[in-house]
Amino acid sequence: MFRHIVLFRVYDDVSESHIDEAIAALRSLAAGSGAAAFEVHRSADTRKGRLIVEDTTFSDRRAFEAFRQSDDHARVASQLAEVSDWWIGDYDIREPGRP
Questions:
Q1: FRET pair for 34, CA 20 to 30 Å: which of 26, 70, 76, 85?
Q2: Where are the beta strands (DSSP E) in the chain?
């Protein structure tokens, strides 16, 4: 399994309606993503600003790379770049007892 987590820090001057549009755009990726799990939510913690959290699990890194290189991903990434900066955490999920 491969995990892809993105924290989008929304720029201060972005309207709530644009945040809603960004969340809808991210959620639209789920259907064609090939992901085992695809979640998008606003963070409940706003102490460091408004955050959108994308938490996605893929069967393996190859499935993730196919998603990342898709036209839909590029389109949504471009849209999110207009309203936010982001931090990404990608890693392989290891089974217990396996290095």
A1: 85
A2: 2-10, 37-42, 51-58, 84-92
